[in-house]
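SEVERITY: medium
COMPONENT: batch folding queue
REPORTER: lab tech (J.R.)

DESCRIPTION
The queue accepted two submissions in a row. Attaching both inputs and their returned structure tokens so the on-call engineer can compare them side by side.

ATTACHMENT 1
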Amino acid sequence: MKAAYATAMEALYRVCVTVAGLCIVVMTIVIPWGVYSRYVLNRGSQWPEPMAVLLMIVFTFAAAAACYRANAHISVVVVANTLPEALRRLALWAVDFLMALLSLFMVIWGIQLVQTTWHQVIAEFPWLSVGVTYMPIPVGGAITFLFIVEQVWIGRPGPESFVHREPTG
């Protein structure tokens, strides 16, 4: 059971990293297009900036979940490292507990936010529901919660994980 869960989390981690990477790539194309259309074509496009903001929202929540699993998030461990071993474990347990609470908060209130704004539209994208734009909040919270469960139940990803893979190229 643990092996199957770890395998699923490995796949979910890869999805998060891929989505975050694609968001960055598309943003690097969209923003220059907005600048080009404004200053070279002398007729600015209305969609590049809001699209970049939407992509940044997706990037933020996908990358935040991936960073948590990879233990690459911003964390202050100075205090925990100065504690005796028993207190250090307690402090780390408290961090996991608080992160789980935050993730559940994101899921519960994020779903309510999505439902409340579902029938509103974005001016630049009248076919896109505002609720869809808030969807990364509960989804990111759920994914982070799954990674927290993995960390507490199984432990951090081992050295064979994609998390520890060196970039090639």
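ATTACHMENT 2
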Amino acid sequence: MDPIVLFDRATTRAADVMGCVRPGQLTDPTPCTRWTVQDLVEHMVGSTDYLLGATGAVVIARAAPATVDDYRAGVTRVLDALQRPGAVERRCASPLGFEWSIAEATAGTFMDNLVHTWDLAVATGQDRRLDDDLVEACVALFLPEMPERGRAAGIVGPAVVVAPDATPQDRLLAAMGRRP
């Protein structure tokens, strides 16, 4: 699948989940052990800033704390920036420090937002099911290499063992250090 389509679909669901977070939940813990719900929202909004900067678009400063409106606006700006001629072929630094294309950065940001949507849903008691097609695409694109790179950089927790017949969603989450 096209990384732009993957990003668009994943962030649509992420915004829906983020939009259902109640103010009283913002200080709650998440499966990302060092992050609260608000920290997770900040990170997800920051992912749109990362892609905007990578495309050469101006990243607009925003007031803290980040909100679902910031996320939606960032996603819209990213999708617009990715449509510019030659945008996806440009090169940028990954969050792990290696160079990759904007298309690869978009796919990586799709993966990050997909997994963090699950984190946010778990933390706030929402439906934790992820889109099967997006999970399958993510598994095909990123397992097993990406979680190992993330572990080496200290940003992905240890893999969790799941049954051989585990669902693709559970395999993805376990590879990313989550307990599905």
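NOTES FROM REPORTER
The mean pLDDT is 95.
No errors were logged for either attachment.
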